[in-house]
Design goal:
Layout (H helix, E strand, L loop, with lengths): L4 H29 L12 H16 L3 H29 L5 H7 L5 H9 L5 H13 L5 H33 L4 H11 L4 H24 L3 H18 L4 H14 L5 H36 L2
Helix pairs in contact: 2-6, 2-9, 3-5, 3-7, 3-11, 5-10, 6-7, 6-9, 6-12, 7-11, 8-11, 9-10, 9-12, 11-12
Pfam families: Form_Nir_trans (PF01226)
Keywords: Coiled coil, Membrane, Transmembrane, Transmembrane helix
Main location: membrane
Length: 300
Amino acid sequence: MNMTDEEKKLAAEEKKLAAEEKKKQKVIDKEIQGTKKTGKDAPKSHGEILRDQLSDALETYNKSTSSILLSSVTAGLEIGFSYLMICSVFFFLEGKMGEDSIFKMISLVYPLGFILVVMGQSILFTEQTALLTLPVLNKKQTSGAMLRLWGLVVIGNLIGGYAIALLLNWLGPRLGIFNNEVMVTIAKHVIAAKLPVILVSAIVAGWLMGLLSWLLASVRDTISRIVIIFLITSVLAFAGLHHSIIGSIEVFSGMLRSPDISLWDYLTFQGSALLGNAFGGAIFVALLKYRAFVFNIFGK
């Protein structure tokens, strides 16, 4: 079937746009790969951080499904040590100070699980969200591949979280380090806000976790990395922002112990927290940081 003049014109314009886009992408890739390394003691440049982040993300995409799932399950288990400390500290301080003050004090122990996960290089959804978005923006991976990887990581994190929650539900009361009432109180505190508030809170939390990933790529020594993890995650706890993975453990544990917390309560919380965390990490960090680099290259 012969093309009309209008169709030929549209096809030519599309071809021209595709060629221009391809040329533009080559310039971006050349700029990223050509970024010079800074000195050992000097802070990394924007381009150097972006290059390292892209490299790390592509390594994750190239891992096998079983490797990603196992690493994600491990992260879900390890983040449970934050929950262990949250419950233990709450039980220890209960009756000695007000409940509001206890929840603020918890911010001092909340970072433990995150330090274990990040320093141990397990795959945690919120810390990886922005990272895994970068290859899509850089046209090295598709959106479908990203969503598949997100799904694997979330499934692994949740499975690990359920396992550690069941273990701690059994162990905590038997060791006398916390009781059922503490788990229920913490769960109710997490889901006390209305769903729109949880969603926005999770967006901010995802933003901070994406920044955590970016900041970690900017430093080289272990002590600085631990300090950054502690500062960012303690802000999450002190401000009461919602994190989908540790929040899953908290609400799931409370659901097991109280009829006041239903499966619907858990599912609506979990859906809102996951959506918010993903949006916050992908949009506010990956997109903004990447676009800032591109604008710097083309000046528009």
